[in-house]
Specification:
Blueprint lengths: L1 H5 L3 E9 L2 E9 L2 E10 L13 H17 L6 E12 L2 E11 L4
Parallel strand pairs: 3-4
Antiparallel strand pairs: 1-2, 2-3, 4-5
Length: 106
């Protein structure tokens, strides 16, 4: 999350869990509420982490985000769904941040 914070996002909640699913991080980007999915890969042999966020996973994240919004009475908030891929390269992490990776249609 520090990578996103260095780019101006503010961490609101880590590992939000509910019966409907889990969200790795809830952050704010100005007035926009950002739901972040983080994917870690040891290498990119089988593709980047963001490529593993399937339609099914997107629906789970969206459903969990709706639960978060209801719980925090933020139903009218502008939202965005981002995916962060972290790949280990030469002992150092490499980040790929996909803003607005998918929408609520899922």
């Amino acid at each position: 999350m520090a990578h996103l914070q260095r780019h101006g996002l503010k961490l609101l909640r880590r590992n939000f869990r509910c019966r409907q699913g889990e969200i790795d991080a809830v952050m704010s980007d100005g007035a926009v509420l950002v739901f972040v999915e983080v994917r870690f890969r040891r290498n990119d042999r089988y593709g980047a982490g963001f490529e593993t966020v399937t339609r099914i996973k997107q629906r789970r994240i969206i459903t969990a985000a709706r639960a978060y919004l209801a719980r925090h009475r933020a139903g009218n908030a502008t939202c965005r769904f981002d995916v962060v891929s972290v790949t280990k390269r030469n002992c150092a992490p490499e980040f790929m941040w996909v803003r607005n990776a998918f929408d609520q249609v899922g």
